[in-house]
Structure formats: structure tokens, C-alpha cells
Amino acid sequence: MSATPTPEEARQTLEGYDQQRKDSATASGYSTGYWIGAGVVVAAFGVFTDFYPTWAGAGSTWFSLVLLAVVVLASTRWGSALVGRRVQVRRPPTGRRWLLALLGAALGLVAMLALAGLDLPHSSAVVGIVFGLLLAVGGPWWQRRTLAREADRL
């Protein structure tokens, strides 16, 4: 038996390694049901805020605190370990990612101010539904794209 693999064995080994890396990246993401549920929650928040303005006071505070707790559990090493998700080292964001995040935040702020200035009827419901749909549809796409790019970097 030779210690040097044949070209066919080397190719099979590399393909197996590449498939394991892709499987690992896919397994570390959230399920599509999570994204759809998050979209429904965001849409419901917008609708409740619009149709029940009295709820927007105390109810939205508790709602926001619960969402904050979910985010902490889902995005920190401590929270991920607590709920049994795989924990990995987080790489610091690059300058490009910071620029994109700041640009997105600025565009969101401008859009919110413009919408508030227009005084449209049911604007909270419309914004909640639009962002809920964006989260439910765009979340899985964004996650697959991000995890695939991360797996390619490894």
C-alpha cells in the first residue's frame, strides 16, 4: 500500500472536504421557519401599532424587550451555547461591512423620516408588513449567501 494517494483518491478527498464545509455552513444557519416567523412577528408589530395605538405604549416596550432577549440568545456565544446551537469564533467586520452597515442605517433613517413627514394613513401597518415580508423572504437568501461566502473563505 502506497502512502501517496492516486489522483482519483485525492480528488475524492478534496470533494468530500468541500462538501463537509458546505454542510457545516448550512447547518449553522437558522431554519426558514425562523425567518418566516420573524417576518410575521414584525408585520404583526406594525399592524398592532397602527390599529391599536394605545398598545404602542406599554405593549411595545415588553415586545421590544422580548425581541432583544431573542437577539441576545441567538447572536452571542453564551446564548447560542445555552440553546444548544453550534458556537464559532466571530471574525471582526471589515471596513467594507462597516460602510455598508452605516449606509443601510442612514438610508433607513432617511426613509423613516420621509415616511413620518408624509403623514400617510396606516403607515405603521404598511411599514410592518413590508419589513416583515422583506425579512421572511430576504432573510433565508441573505443567510445562504453569507454562509456560502464564509465557507468559501475558510
Structure description:
The protein has 154 residues and is an all-alpha fold. It has one domain (34-144). It has 6 helices and no strands. It has helices spanning 7-27, 32-51, 55-75, 77-82, 95-118, 123-153. α1 runs antiparallel to α6, α2 runs antiparallel to α3 and α2 (32-51) packs antiparallel against α6. The chain is elongated. The model has no long low-confidence stretch (mean pLDDT 78).
Tally the beta strands.
0
Total helix count? Answer: 6
- Assign the structural class, choosing from mainly alpha, mainly beta, alpha/beta, alpha+beta, or little secondary structure: mainly alpha
**Which outline best applies?**
elongated
SSE sequence, one letter per element:
HHHHHH
Tally of discrete structural domains: 1
Residues in β-strands, percent:
under 5%
Outline the low-pLDDT stretches: none
Secondary structure: helix percent: over 70%
Largest sheet data: none
- Give the distance, in angstroms, between the N- and C-terminal Cα atoms: 32 Å
What's this model, at a glance?
This protein has 154 residues and is an all-alpha fold. Helices cover 80% and strands 0% of the residues.
What are the SSEs and their pairings?
Elements: H1 7-27, H2 32-51, H3 55-75, H4 77-82, H5 95-118, H6 123-153
Question: Which keywords apply here?
Answer:
154 residues; 6 helices; mainly alpha
